Amino acid sequence: MAMNERKTIDLEQGWEFMQKGITKLKNILEGLPEPQFSSEDYMMLYTTIYNMCTQKPPHDYSQQLYDKYRESFEEYITSTVLPSLREKHDEFMLRELVKRWANHKVMVRWLSRFFHYLDRYFIARRSLPPLNEVGLTCFRDLVYQELNGKVRDAVISLIDQEREGEQIDRALLKNVLDIFVEIGMGQMDYYENDFEAAMLKDTAAYYSRKASNWILDDSCPDYMLKAEECLKREKDRVSHYLHSSSEPKLLEKVQHELLSVYATQLLEKEHSGCHALLRDDKVEDLSRMFRLFSKIPRGLDPVSGIFKQHVTAEGTALVKQAEDAA
């Protein structure tokens, strides 16, 4: 038999062989004792797909293999991934999700290699979504769509625990929030709509509660110290686990609730407000006031008003003093 007359592989028999390779991959991901793929295994799987896609019609199975590639992910997610996530809650669910997402990316990488011939020819010709994208979309449609609300609530609740001084696993939050970013495949929509919007709302509510207590109990300098500390901590949160694009929005919320809402009350506090600070020459507190209020739109207007009154009053007093002496 000449070389070019290779034996036709029918769909069922070819797919049965591929299925063995895919099952081996799943076992490796599930941590079952399974030897790694050798280069021979890999070549056999790759070649089987190549042959099944280059046979003469009607034995060119490119379209069927493209569909089966997707079905392999769907089957694994429905039978294994989702059940393992549904039985866990809160932080344990977040840990499982991070592990499952990492495994999913490995699976996409390996299966895309086995099916590589599809990507190069079939998909390019028909302008279909590439294998990599198909693999990630399966996770998005089946896992992410079902769980993103629960995940968001669990993350926000951990952030609030941290604000209350508890130790939390920041690396875990970073990994979870990376999923919101990566699932967008280059767009930030999922992170912004499914996580960030709710997180900002929660931040505003949190600081609104804090501020309404502090404004009653604290002197103006103490309140400003707390506000400055909160802004520093929120910035720190961004650098550790939130996406950098959240920083301006987050600080804006905190500034609004702590400073804009209470500006008048704070600056006009009887024994410790702006008047008192100017009178007693509290340079450090005044410079903190300038730092904080200069970040807010029109924030320095009330400060400069009080400063003007103070200068006028001092000046008038000096003139009167000079007149009296004369």
Summarize the structure.
With 326 residues, the chain is mostly helical. The chain has helices spanning 11-29, 39-54, 62-86, 90-114, 116-126, 131-163, 170-182, 189-217, 220-240, 247-260, 263-267, 274-279, 283-293, 300-325.
Order of helices and strands: HHHHHHHHHHHHHH
Number of helices: 14
- Class derived from helix and strand content: mainly alpha
Q: Gap between N and C termini, in Å?
A: 127 Å
Please state the average pLDDT score: 90
Label the overall shape.
Answer: elongated
Family: Belongs to the cullin family.
Pfam families: Cullin
Organism: Salix purpurea (Purple osier willow)
Protein name: CULLIN 3B
Characterise the protein shown here.
There is one protein chain. The chain contains 14 helices and no strands. It is mainly alpha-helical and 326 residues long. Helix 3 packs antiparallel against helix 4 and helix 4 runs antiparallel to helix 6. It is elongated and about 120 Å long.
Output the keywords.
326 residues, single chain, elongated, 78% helix, mainly alpha
Question: Strands, helices and their partners?
Answer:
Elements: H1 11-29, H2 39-54, H3 62-86, H4 90-114, H5 116-126, H6 131-163, H7 170-182, H8 189-217, H9 220-240, H10 247-260, H11 263-267, H12 274-279, H13 283-293, H14 300-325
Helix pairs in contact: 1-2, 1-3, 1-4, 2-5, 3-4, 3-6, 4-6, 4-7, 6-8, 7-8, 8-10, 9-10, 9-13
